[in-house]
Amino acid sequence: MAVNLDVLLQGPIFDFWAVPVVFKPIKSQPGQPDYTRRGILNTYSLDVAGLDGQLYSDQRTILDIRESEFDVLPQQDDHLVIPLDCNDVPRGEYQIVDASSDGGGQTMLTIRKFETIM
Questions:
Q1: Pick from 67, 58, 52, 62: which is nearest to 110 by CA?
Q2: How many angstroms separate the CA atoms of 51 and 78, rounded?
């Protein structure tokens, strides 16, 4: 019997960790209005060692989403707004730079802060 990870595992995890997110479907659905779904926000560090022994440190910010909660999945160059994270800290607007599915019903969106230059 097949195990439905989306229902048995991801549902409870998202019920506990996910926060509301406003998606702006600029590329995935041009001309359509913004809509609210939810996602799990995370940032982790990346350290790259150079050949000369120097260490370059950066970070990667991601938003995990359940594919079953979307009629059309967000894609690269769509925007999203995270009004508050799980600690009630305002996060702001982001641009999706990459999307990858895990094959089990969850997609990881790699996002970067979107700021307009005045």
A1: 62
A2: 36
User: Looking up tokens 């997609």, which residue turns up?
Assistant: 107
Q: How is residue 8 written in tokens?
A: 């048995």
Q: Which of 7, 2, 77, 66 is nearest to 37 (CA)?
A: 66
CA 7 to chain centre: 20
Q: Where are the alpha helices (DSSP H) in the chain?
A: 5, 11-17
Contact predicate 95/79, CB 8 Å: yes
Give the model's confidence band at 2: pLDDT under 50 very low, under 70 low, under 90 confident, else very high.
confident
What's the pLDDT tens digit per position in 70-117? 999 999 999 999 999 989 999 999 999 999 999 888 999 999 999 877
